[in-house]
């Protein structure tokens, strides 16, 4: 009969109920067990930034944020600190505000990857976004130092204006060179060696989180200039060492 209604197929798939959300404590526990290796990581990132990022990742998980959203929050904090550095006159209050924004942004930078591992949603698009935000942050930060040098500092000579440009070059080359070396070097099939504590200490001066502490000296022009110069000198030395190491490893592996 034309009016007969057919019943729905009995083998139609029924969506499985969504898994219940983990509590904050359980999310923290799982995050602690899903950390990346500590090889090549400074003590600051290992014992300060990653643990803080873990707390933020658990909070972001409970707030149902995606890793990409956490990446954008990281960029927003960093961008706010950089903008304040470029626009406002140096003071001790600005020093704390800039450092705080940069440090929180760096912690969220750790949180996005941890959240992706917890959710099992990591992928090339998220990695690309994370690296683009990092590159923008590094480039803009030293540009903001150049602006504040020019606008607000009583420099003893114009040569000081070249310092942020040199630092920017060194920082970008370390960032880009390290990423490219990781892509080009073959992955080791053997298990990673135990992380070296001596190396973790030696890497402290080129850890972004440690470098951010230099902005706590913004209230004193001389203290900031010479501390910034010292960090640049260390970065220049590490840049030469890193480039030599990466080139040798890639050449031997090819």
Q: Any key phrases for this structure?
A:
single chain, mainly alpha, about 70% helix, transmembrane helix, CDP-OH_P_trans
3D structure, described in words:
The protein has one domain: CDP-alcohol phosphotransferase transmembrane (TM) domain (Four Helix Bundle (Hemerythrin (Met), subunit A), Up-down Bundle), CATH 1.20.120. The protein is 69% helix and 0% strand. It is built from nine helices and no strands. The N terminus is likely disordered. Belongs to the CDP-alcohol phosphatidyltransferase class-I family. InterPro entries: CDP-OH_P_trans (IPR000462), CDP-OH_PTrfase_TM_dom (IPR043130), CDP_ALCOHOL_P_TRANSF_CS (IPR048254). This is CDP-alcohol phosphatidyltransferase. GO terms for molecular function: phosphotransferase activity, for other substituted phosphate groups.
